Amino acid sequence: MESHDPSPHINDQQEENQTDTQILPETPSPPPSDATTAFSQPPPAWSDISPPSNYRPLRAPAINLPLHYSQQAIILTPVPQSQRVTTVSPPYHFQTPVKKIQSVDDLRRFHGSDACKNFLGFVVALSESIRGRKISDPCHQSPTVNSITSIIETLIRWVDEIPPVQQSSRYGNYSFRVWQDRLTENCESLMLEFLPDELRPATVEIVPYFTDSFGNSSRIDYGTGHETNFTAWLYCLARMGIIREEDYQAVVSRIFVKYLDLMRKLQLVYCLEPAGSHGVWGLDDYHFLPFIFGSSQLIEHKHMKPKSIHNQDILDNFSNEYLYLSCIAFVKKVKKGLFAEHSPLLDDISGVPNWNKVNSGMLKMYKVEVLEKVPIMQHFLFGWLIKWE
């Protein structure tokens, strides 16, 4: 799945394995769930440590993922490498995308495909585009980037126009379904705001990715599968040449940052439940990619180290510039108690010596813990732009 170019961040296999040993220490793991898991080893045995009593999950996630981390699988996974997106040319054959992954064998087939390799390479390229850069740093902003950012701002305004209803259930506010209905009704016209005339027929293919990027209206939940669909939507735009490599920094620092603002607002206002969350034993109840992009931002930073997440002054002053710090600050805002108890994996990662190791370990973890999990990827869509080979 990786290109043959040597990674700029990993000198050799020994350092790579050391990276994962540090980013995934031998922490106790909860018992496995019944969910199907691809490419994972049996979980390590329970110790006498149990999840902290002061952490209360919303309820059982809508899609039960295994609660353990496949440490060995992550260690053995090569660090994903960036790839240039292969663009399409006329004649176009846009089609309504559909779900194809139903089993571990289907997932293996996908991971052996050029489509999967190129998609993962796109994620790595986005990560590399923001390396060493702050969110506010100047970058190339094309009219397309500005248009997409404006669209997400519109979606944020809709939240203000559709307040949560009074209901007996604390979580999963039904007003989210009203917001989703408005999105579905207006999505095609939103896409036409930036699609050139010759690519207007692409709405049949890209609209389903976009509408599934913000959570599920039936379950009123959100998780890394929806986040991956948003990234797949961006990848489809790159496949059509609407997003170019010179846009990548802005895709992260303008579009994805605005998307994260929207999702946090949706999570808080409508009390979205985590879809298939690892809960207390995961990175975050909802997101993964901002940790990848955020760790890349901090590579070779002169002052901030992974352990700096425990410095509240740093979080207060720099979380608006660095996605990783923003994620930590948000976790501390919505979860009470000791950080090491409600976010043990993030606490463990803070002991990694540098951001290079955090970033490479995060990329490997994303491949294994998100893209290689049937309960997540069974909802992934395939059409003409992302082909089922």
Automatic annotation (TrEMBL):
Biological process terms from the Gene Ontology for this record are: mitotic spindle organization
Give the keywords, sorted.
Cytoplasm, Isomerase, Rotamase
Disordered: annotated span: 1-53
SUPFAM superfamilies this protein is in?
PTPA-like
Reactions the enzyme catalyzes: [protein]-peptidylproline (omega=180) = [protein]-peptidylproline (omega=0)
The source's domain of life comes to Eukaryota
GO MF entry, a single one: peptidyl-prolyl cis-trans isomerase activity
Report the InterPro entries cross-referenced here.
Answer: Phstyr_phstse_ac, PTPA_C_lid, PTPA_sf
Write down the EC number.
5.2.1.8
User: Where is it located?
Assistant: Cytoplasm
Q: What's a single GO CC term here?
A: protein phosphatase type 2A complex
Q: Which Gene3D superfamilies match?
A: 1.20.120.1150
The cross-references to Pfam families, in alphabetical order and at most eight, read:
PTPA
Q: Which PANTHER family match?
A: SERINE/THREONINE-PROTEIN PHOSPHATASE 2A REGULATORY SUBUNIT B, SERINE_THREONINE-PROTEIN PHOSPHATASE 2A ACTIVATOR
What does the protein in this record do? PPIases accelerate the folding of proteins. It catalyzes the cis-trans isomerization of proline imidic peptide bonds in oligopeptides.
Family classification: Belongs to the PTPA-type PPIase family.
Protein name listed in UniProt: Serine/threonine-protein phosphatase 2A activator
- Highest classification ranks of the organism: Eukaryota, Viridiplantae, Streptophyta, Embryophyta, Tracheophyta
